Automatic annotation (TrEMBL):
Every Thioredoxin domain range: 1-118
NCBIfam families: thioredoxin (TIGR01068)
GO cellular component, one term: cytoplasm
GO molecular function, one term: protein-disulfide reductase activity
Pfam families, per the entry: Thioredoxin
Keywords recorded for this protein, A-Z: Disulfide bond, Electron transport, Redox-active center, Transport
Protein name in the entry: Thioredoxin
CDD domains: TRX_family
PANTHER family: GEO12009P1
Length: 118
């Protein structure tokens, strides 16, 4: 029986991690090699359409998927220059390396992740 991959804090890495603040986001991005952060809002249609794609990527890639609710964490989103949702930020080795606005298709997100996991 396979066990879920977990990070140092015990969070599952096979599904998106919901971020609860700046220090949590910093911990996740520094503890993992590649992290794709989804800045989203519950009321956002494209964000809802992106959810199954992100769940699939969390389960099938080496990247950790983190989700930041921009309504709950407005200052955190603002510090990343998030002007619209969804906005996706990619971190590699603790540093932000990419940022994209809009719901990207799975193949584009997968190739973006794979650039930093190979």
């Amino acid at each position: 029986m396979a066990t879920d991959a977990r990070d140092a804090s015990g969070e599952s890495l096979d599904e998106p991690i919901y971020i609860d603040g700046r220090s949590h986001l910093e911990n996740v991005t520094t503890a993992n090699d590649v992290v794709l952060v989804d800045f989203y809002a519950d009321w956002c249609g494209p964000c809802q359409m992106l959810n199954p794609v992100l769940e699939q990527l969390a389960d099938t890639t080496e990247a950790v998927i983190a989700k930041v609710d921009v309504d709950e964490h407005q200052q955190l989103a603002g510090s990343f220059g998030v002007r619209g949702v969804p906005t996706l930020a990619l971190f590699a080795d603790g540093e932000q390396v990419e940022q994209q606005s809009g719901a990207l298709p799975e193949d584009r997100l997968r190739s973006l992740i794979e650039r930093y996991t190979e």
